[in-house]
Amino acid sequence: MKYVLGIDIGGTKIAVCIANEKGDILASDRFPSTKTYKEAIKKIADLAKKLLADQKMTVKDIAACGISAPGPLDVPNGLLLRSPNMPWGDKLPIQKDLTKALGIPAILENDANAGALAEWFFGCGKGKKNLIYMTMSTGVGGGVIAGGHLVQGHTGNACELGHIVLDIHGPMCNCGLRGCMEAYTGGKAVQQKMQAALKDHPDHAFFRLPCVEGKVENLNFRALLEGVRAQIPLALEWWEEYCVRMAQGLAAVITSFDPEVIVLGTTAYHAGDLLFKPLERLMPQFLWANYCRSTEIRLSALGLRIGELAGVSVAFNALYEKGLWKPKK
Ligand SMILES: [Zn+2]
Questions:
Q1: Which residues are close to ligand 1, an ion, with C-beta < 5 A?
Q2: Which of 15, 56, 134, 155 has the greatest count of CB atoms below 10 A from its CB?
Q3: Average pLDDT, the chain
């Protein structure tokens, strides 16, 4: 086993890193996302070559290259599709172009699946065969490891868990459906709901929270948590609905996959016990007792490091599926 290269495409930044077989990051650097796709490919290739040279390595030392990118993607064909957050264009053959530019076969995977792989190989999922990772920030995404393999589905779009519809009469989701889990628990949806409800009520207690500073634009997920801590009645009411919808969504996922552990990332980090305590109370209303006993709900062990490990985990998974690498237990 040699080394792996990981490329993490984000909305604002692109990172490149080299890891050894244990998942230790040996070298890593990033640059702000570029205006054009062509520029991004060139900059990624240049940075990868520079990092390799700094480590006195060549492409021959790299066993695989993984790319983690936000959806929508066409994973079987290695394409980036048009997205409101990534104004580069549609059907961009990133897998083929980076394979050519780097001289190493590159593999594309969506960032939520890549996060699930990272938690499986290096985080809470170590040594397990069934795990679910939920990324919850602006949107809600998920990745599933079942029976020791990443679930990709027929078109590579399996496990868009944030878009399980919980109520067809619910709020509009950014995807165009109504009442998705993301429409209740995504950071952007929470922010939109708070701002719409309070914009004409400048005297509301929410505006007196230190993090809000009296400004409508500061009403966001963080402000909701602060409102809950300050026991503002409306915050408590909204938070209860958030937790009920979270429990409902997680229960659907747990019932489908019967995982050993379900790992919550990002916003769960900021919420901590404010989220985990209500979930403990609410889950039995949505889930059979046997699942409640056998599935552990945990906070991501990797925290913010997950972004750095996402791309390399995609590379490790490609080697794992070929029998060329095994995660440590
Ligand atoms: Zn949706």
A1: 163, 173, 175, 177, 180
A2: 134
A3: 94
